[in-house]
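User: My collaborator and I are trying to settle a disagreement about how two of our proteins should look. Neither of us wants to argue from intuition anymore, so we agreed to look at predicted structures for both before our next call. Could you fold the first one, then the second, and keep them clearly separated?

Assistant: That sounds like a sensible way to settle it. I'll keep them separate. The first protein:
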Amino acid sequence: NLLVSVGEGEGFVETGWLGRTLSVGGARLRVREGCVRCAFTVIAQGELPQDPAILDAIDRHGGTHLGVLCDVDAPGPVAAGDPVRLL
């Protein structure tokens, strides 16, 4: 799993990456498809209470998709803080 900061982008910018390749550290990842989210997104996490509004917001703005699934085109080392480049 990777958490990527996209700065001040509007909406779910990762949907624009579908079919493209990402360079992350020494690896190359092909963005295959959107990641469908389910009811697990609303379950309480630590100090955060259960919140059904989370899934409602994902559905409203991303059509049940949040994040993307990738295939590894070229394996390589990846470390926290490595830049992510859209190729």
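The second protein, kept apart from the first:
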Amino acid sequence: MRLILLDWLQQVCSDYFLKRQTYHRAIQYLDRYLPSADEITAEEYQLVGITALHLATKIEEIYPPHIRAFVDSTNDSVTIDQMRATE
């Protein structure tokens, strides 16, 4: 499941022309969170992954994409409110 998520996050990074460091920072955030979580569904994997990427863009990118862009990349399976709560 993690490998599928990382491939998808890589695709999102390339869609928005994000830096390589942004992708790696998102993976670090994801790897720090996953051991502490008990049970994670597929939808929650996507939510945690896209939120980690959003946080990483705030640190690494000069002009990070708007949160709405990340919601659009999930085909609206995640809401802005869910991302903010997970953040």
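Some points you might bring to the call about the second protein. The two ends are 21 Å apart (CA to CA). The CA atoms of residues 68 and 80 lie 7 Å apart.
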